[in-house]
Amino acid sequence: MKAAILVDENNAVSMLHSLGVEGIRPWKAFYDALYSVLKRDYGDCQVDYRFYGAIPPKHIDMEKFYLRKRFFSALEKDGIEVHKGFCQSFGGGLVEKGVDVLVALDLFQMSLNQYDLLFIFSADGDLYPAVQRAQNNGSKVVAILSERQPASLIKKLVDGVVPLEAVIDLIDDKHLIRRPNTKHQTIGEMNA
What we know:
It comes from Paenibacillus aestuarii. α4 (about 100-110) runs parallel beside α5. The protein is an alpha/beta fold. It has a single domain, classed as 3-Layer(aba) Sandwich (Rossmann fold). About 45% of the residues lie in helices and about 30% in strands. The strands form 2 sheets. It has a 7-stranded mixed sheet, sandwiched between helices. The chain is globular. It has 8 helices and 9 strands. β6 (about 115-120), α5 (about 130-135) and β7 (about 140-145) form a beta-alpha-beta unit.
């Protein structure tokens, strides 16, 4: 059985922030936690780890450019395949471009390459057509979503949902960077 875990950085970070998590260091801890869920529910299999983010042009923000390059390099050293979109200047800030297209292309291409399971950490409704095509090609698509995330379009379409809260509970606390003024809550505490 072949599987892949695809993380859309902006979407993932937004969901993590809603849970009081600023980040995960190293990100491999997230992939490994999700792999333990995958192995429990679907059995042992070959799994590709993929991460999708953007990098600002060097001439626009040299400091962010080098910070992002260092971050992506650390991911690659951990065996995570990195796919980079780009940033454009817009309204005085930087706007990420191309990342959702990269995720969509990989969902489709991996389904053509006989990936049985595709886990996507994204609530982006723009992925709907790619998810449908991957399913039509025989892949099972499972979303990692926070219970606080509406994502009704994706939830209706995918073959299953793994609650982000359950994955976070599997990650050793030393790998979670907490947001200021928040405390860690287990799923039981959130539902109480």
